Amino acid sequence: MYMMAKHLHMTAVGISVLLFVFRFIYGQMNPSFLQQKWVKVVPHIIDTVLLGSAIWLCVILSQYPIVNSWLTAKVIGVIGYILFGLLALKSETPVKKWGGFAGALIVLGVTAKVAITKQVFFL
Prior knowledge:
The chain is mostly helical. It has 2 domains: 1-62; 65-123. 80% of the residues lie in helices and 0% in strands. The radius of gyration is 15 Å and the shape is globular. The mean pLDDT is 91. InterPro entries: SirB. It holds the Pfam family SirB. The chain crosses the membrane at residues 6-26, 38-64, 70-89, 101-121. Keywords: Membrane, Transmembrane, Transmembrane helix.
C-alpha cells in the first residue's frame, strides 16, 4: 500500500508542476488559453488526487503535520507554492507574473528538498 500511495503522490506532484509550468508559459503567449474550461478543471482534479494521496501517506506512515516538523514545513511550502502560483497566473503585470512564477519554483524546490531529506533545516 505504501509504494502505491507514494507513487500516486509523486506522479500527481509531477503532473501538477508540469501543468503549472505549461499553463504559465502558454498563458504568456496566449492569455485567452487560461480561460478554456479544461485548463481550469484539470489542475483541480490533479491537485485533489495529490492532496488525497498525501493524506493517505500520512495515515499509512502515522506521521502528521504539527507532530512532525518536516511535514509541517512541507504543508507550509505547499501553501506558499499555491500563493505564488496564484500570483503568477492571475497578476496583471509581467513583473508580478514572473516574480510569482520564480517564487513558486523556488518554494517548490525547497519543499521538495524537505520532502526528500525529511529535514527542515539544510544547507
